[in-house]
Amino acid sequence: MSAFNNVSKLISIRTILLSVFLLLMILPLVVITYITYKKENELFQKQVSQYLLQTVGQTQRALDANLSEIDRLTWTLLYEQSLDFLNGPLDSSYPLFEANQKFKNMVYSNLFRGRLEHIRAIYFITAGHEVLSTENLFYTYEQVDRVNIQFVMDQIERQPLKMNWFSDKRSIYRLKDGFETPVRASVTAARRLIDSNTAKLRGYLFVQFNDRFISEHLRNVQIGSTGSLLVTDASGDVIYQQDPQLSQNNKISQAIQDLPSQGQGLQIVDGKWLLAFDTSQISGWKMTAVVPINELIGPNQKILRYLLMMSAIGALVAVIVSFLLATAISKPVINLARLMAFAAKDNLHVRDTQGAIQEISILQFSFNRLMDRIQRLIHENEKQQKEKREALLQALQMQIHPHFLYNTLDMIYWMAKKHKAESISKLVTALGRFFRFTLNAGQEWTTLGKELEHVENYLQIQSFRYRDKLYYEIELEPEVAYVNVMPLILQPLIENALEHGISKSQDGGKVMIKAFRSEDNVLIVISNTGRQVDLEHVRLLLQNANSNNHVGLRNVQQRIQTAFGTEYGIEVAAGEDQGALVTVTIPYRLAALQEDQEGA
């Protein structure tokens, strides 16, 4: 009962199969879902980042094309356009007025005729600090912001052949507050003008653009739904921004300031914003796009939800499939185990129905065969037991008949004694002993002494048959008298010696029997005189189970080897002079009774 309780505490095969199936199905599903999401998220972020960087780069190139066009419009002032209005002295108001009128006509009519809607004012400051301006309120050098103009000129001297661009913060002249207009200044383009013939400095040209100049190119650029575009000059001054609040973030503004002065790239700020930048080779402006990362990965979150939904459906299907598979496999095994437990209680009539799974079907078939075999063996055993009981009853009944035979032989014996026929009395005595041993030969074991006593009775009886032609001699060492031996193993050998040796000789012969111990074995040597035997023929007959010759000899060999092993048995050799020499080898094993006596 305790063993059954221990078994009942073990994990069932259904639980194991269900756990294994769920592990094999759900774990790969979870791993694949996770890896898919991570890889897809990385790929998506990379694509979005590249797209954002491409957007910034394309926008920067479009703006650079516009700035290059402004630069191209001023080339004529360097090589073609005449600046004759600067040739005369400008130290009085009238020449200065005339020169200013020619300057306005030149820039409005010739240079920037197609860009006037983007231009707020144009200034020209000569090398002598005279001011020519399209802004009527700006006419003297004293109105110039000295700090800004010094900064601008220093920048121009660094790149004297290029158009330089500055934010409104670096404007050299600002209107008074009372004269502010809805069209606000945005950036200023400045370059140095020299005489192409003499290479002398003629002055500095300043073109101040209004806020429409940049906004028309950048206002339609969409950086996500909440992102912002920011343009700064080489000094970090803001030129244009879509969302001032986003650029006011301290971490974002600090990250923009720390950007490299050249090139383009991507950065993640505080794990919340993605920053893409591109630097103009023409103006040195840095265009920066800032967009929240959550906005970029928003579509990816939808993909994640879809993956989770698919994983949940896959997990549900895996659970159902695992349950069905575990049930399909474990149900016949559990049923077979239940039947075996039922059969263990002597209910051998149970049988299992074979299923569709090959291996389990083999188990079920084997179980059914086992039950049939057990029932058949039980039936055969019952039959054998019944027959054995019947044979025992018959043996008990047959034991009555030998008493009549013994009484008859005893009466013959006393009659022979009465008539003084000693030979007949000896024959009857030997015959009685012979029958008594033969009738008790159903026992499994006897002693070597009793076996030789039976042989001696047999030889006495045969002596009357052969009269004076048969002589025998038996030598038995006392040490081996109580050795275990099977009954009637020596009589067949003596019969062969008489039949094939003594009976064939006209002068008769002699039979010698010696039994002695040799180390752990007992040797029984039987020799006879008479005709020489064909030893090779005898050996072949011992090995051939189908031969009808020497059946007794072969039977003795099989009985000895069955009882003691193949290393024991019979060896046949030629006699010293004639006849045959048979050696029987058996182990030295004392009978239980003798062992008890010796122990006592």
TrEMBL record:
The HAMP domain, residue ranges: 327-379
Record-level Gene Ontology MF annotations: kinase activity
Entry keyword set: Cell membrane, Coiled coil, Kinase, Membrane, Phosphoprotein, Transferase, Transmembrane, Transmembrane helix
Coiled-coil features, chain-numbered ranges: 367-399
Source species, domain of life: Bacteria
Membrane topology: Multi-pass membrane protein
Provenance organism: Paenibacillus chondroitinus
Entry's transmembrane regions: 16-37, 306-329
Gene3D superfamilies given in the database record: 6.10.340.10, Histidine kinase-like ATPase, C-terminal domain, PAS domain
InterPro entries linked to this entry: Bact_2-comp_sensor_kinase (IPR050640), HAMP_dom (IPR003660), HATPase_C_sf (IPR036890), HATPase_dom (IPR003594), Sig_transdc_His_kin_internal (IPR010559)
Compartments, record wording: Cell membrane
Protein name: Sensor histidine kinase
Cited Pfam families: HATPase_c, His_kinase
Alphabetized PROSITE patterns for the sequence: HAMP
